[in-house]
What we know:
By secondary structure, the chain is mostly beta strands. The chain is built from five helices and 35 strands. Strands 1, 4, 5, 6, 7, 8, 9 and 10 form an eight-stranded mixed sheet that branches. Strands 15-14-11-35 form a four-stranded antiparallel sheet, with no helix packed on it. A four-stranded antiparallel sheet has the order 19-20-21-22, with no helix packed on it. A hairpin with a 3-residue loop joins strand 27 and strand 28. Helix 2 packs parallel to helix 5. The two termini are 13 Å apart.
Amino acid sequence: MRIRTTFIGFALAAVVFSLIIRERDDAVVAMSLQANQQDELALALRDPGRHYRLALPEFTVGTPDAPLSAAARTIAEVLWNDINFEREFYMIPRVDAARVPVAAAEALPYQQWAELDADFVLVGAVRRTGTDLTLELRMVSVKAENRGKPYFAMGYTCKEQNPRFCAHSIADDFHKQARNLDGVARTKLAFSSDRDSSRVAGRPSQTEGQGKEIYVADYDGAGQLRLTVNRSLNINPSWATSSLLSYTSYSSGFPDIYLANLATPGRLTRPAAGNDRVQNQLGAWSPDGSKLAYMSNETGDMDIWIVNRDGSGRQNLTSFPKADEGSPTWSPDGSQIAFTSTRATGQTPQLYVMNSAGTAQRRLLDVRVDRPTWSQQKFIAFTVGGGPGHDIGIYDFNSPGGVRVITDGQGSNESPAVAPNGRHIAFFTTRWGKQQIAIIDSDGKNIRQITNSGNNMYPSWQPIAR
């Protein structure tokens, strides 16, 4: 399996699109080291509900030098965090593992690992090969009857200059082979932030104040990169594909949805083609990236519209009189759209769902709801509560009828975005003071802070590249 990624950022001044190409030439080449790997993996998968205790010590380094040793340490640390993130294994703390001497797979001190109650040890050996580094990784059993037998054995060739991407790639590969799980280690988060913006005047009163720009970061918050630089209000990013990203911008003096291709240089497009009278915002892309659902005031009230990515086929799906509809989100199979509507109350937005053609509109919840996002794990997450504080709630199709709140009421928690594997939810919260992006597991456990500079909001989780 060969994996290549190229990331291209862009800068935006007014409506002029200027590409800043930052090709990282990240290549990860993986090859099996064991002919009988499938039989061994079947053994590891026989009890997917069990959380085996996994140790991941520092890697051995052949002919070490400072750069190679640093890359090896980074790969081991990031890989530990990536595996721990998915909670498929109980990861023995690195501080505990550090008490065991680093050794190759053939010379592991099994008794010391057994004293830490490890089921498996993920052993790595790193060496330099030309301008790249080669990593051999083996997961071996600590149990006496299976000692030395690898349950996962792969070799990787990575760029020494980007050890984080190497670790992310290995983590996704490991989860797929050991647990048949689509990991999210290589995915990114897009969000809006005021950290580098200046005060922008001349916009409508509700948007006056600090400008906001669009940023992209690794799923764990590393490598935060500013994409827009137009000194305007840029909010609500939404991934169309792993390389196409849209957002709402006021850079032309009115809100409209802009679409940028991060993989190839080119100009921005505006599929919904707004103007100073027709204002479009809160775009959401169909799972295949071909259609954009969004809210627009074209007919007076706010309605849900859809349009093809090339700007053709515009259609109003909701035209309920004297009601506002907004915040669309597509079902994972693209057959339905959930949205909010005030039609039953006149003021309070509630959760509705309809077929993607606009038919069979029906209410799911009669409580106040905002910013729904649909998960492939058969639930919809949303902001719940009338303020001043909010929480993240879930409507579960497996047990419909109520709201399960997964945040704890600390601060205000808003605008959820579900991970592409459905296991995690990004949102923004004020629990640490300013608005910061956080991630929580869908069961309400393991909250993690992702940003810490400025105010950050409206996360969108990149889909897994296919």
